[in-house]
Amino acid sequence: MSEGPPRKILVIEDEPDIVRGLTDALGFEGFEVQARGTGQDGLEAAAAWGPDLVLLDLMLPDDNGYRVCEQLRERDPVVPIIILTAKAQEADKVRGLDAGADDYVTKPFSVAELIARINAIFRRQQRLAATDEAFAIGPWTVNARKHTLTKGRQSKRLTFYELEVLKLLRERADDAVSRDELLEKVWGVQGNPTNRTVDNFIVKLRRKLEEDQKNPRHILTVYGYGYKLVP
Q1: Whole-angstrom Cα distance, residue 182 to residue 221?
Q2: Could you give the angle at which helices 197-209 and 160-171 cross, rounded to 10 degrees?
Q3: CB neighbour list of residue 11: distance below 8 Å, 6 or more residues apart
Q4: Which of 2, 3, 19, 55 is the most buried (most CB within 10 A)?
Q5: What is the DSSP string of 193-224?
Q6: CA-based R_g, the chain, Å
Q7: What are 55's strand-pairing partners?
Q8: Contacts of residue 215, Cβ cutoff 8 Å, sequence gap at least 6
Q9: How far apart are CA 50 and CA 72, in angstroms?
Q10: Where in the chain is CATH 3.40.50.2300?
Q11: How far apart are CA 98 and CA 96, in angstroms?
């Protein structure tokens, strides 16, 4: 972690044991933490406090976690949101990503892995802040500083991880990048055979970039290995 004020993490979770464990672990790592047990309280805290990252449980007592995620994303298009979910089905995870989340961790989860992901986000944010680089992918222009994807008058917002995946693929344009490397360099975690995080984000990016998602021209699959970008 760099010098300066501590990063602020908002935990929206109603299970006391999880809240206590996260608050203690994140506090030990030097983060400033606030916790809220309902979706409404979490939204109010996010608006008043301005967290640097949000950990969001999907099963809240007063609201649907997906709706809370959508409202958080509407208020702040860039703040990283990591979903904490007991729902292990792939469709539930993808729904969370579609609601605006950047990542998900399935309960029960490793606190050490979660902190590794959080630290990876903040390290990459520091590097991103030092550049205002823009680059083209086909007819689209990616603005790294503004987290936008533009084509003429069209503009689409890129979440933190969407941008980071594009940046890494662009650094290695026309070369294949493995799923394991994407997981390690973007998310800060080791790959495993059941981790579909990268694939889910490629689906999201193709929705935004490709005219024909079934026959992509820019983000290509290298079967059994990973992906490559053809600008």
Answers
A1: 13
A2: 90
A3: 19, 22, 23, 26, 33, 34, 35, 36, 54, 55
A4: 55
A5: TT--HHHHHHHHHHHHH-SSTTS-SSEEEETT
A6: 17
A7: 11, 82
A8: none
A9: 11
A10: 8-127
A11: 5
Helices (H), 50-174: 65-75, 90-98, 111-129, 160-171
In the chain, the amino acid numbered 180 is D
Would you say 134 and 144 are in contact if contact means Cβ atoms under 8 Å apart?
yes
pLDDT at 127: 63
Q: Which two tokens stand for residue 78?
A: 């860039």
Per the listing, tokens 């902190």 go with 115
- The list of the chain residues with pLDDT below 70 reads 1-3, 88-89, 127-132, 189-194
Compute the distance between CA of residue 6 and CA of residue 79 in angstroms, rounded to an integer.
16
Starting at the earlier edge strand, list the strands of the sheet with 219-222: 177-178, 226-229, 219-222
Stated pTM of the model: 0.75
CATH number among 1.10.472.10, 3.40.50.2300, 3.30.950.10, 3.40.710.10, domain 8-127: 3.40.50.2300
pLDDT in tens, 74-120: 888 788 999 988 876 677 777 887 888 888 888 888 898 899 888 88
CATH number of 132-229: 1.10.10.10
d(CA 139, CA 133): 17
The backbone region for 141, taken as left when phi is positive above 0, alpha when psi lies in -120 to 50, beta otherwise, is beta
Query: How many CB atoms neighbour CB 149 within 10 A?
Result: 21
CA distance 159 to 87: 22
CB atoms within 10 A of CB 20: 11
CA 151 from centre of chain: 23
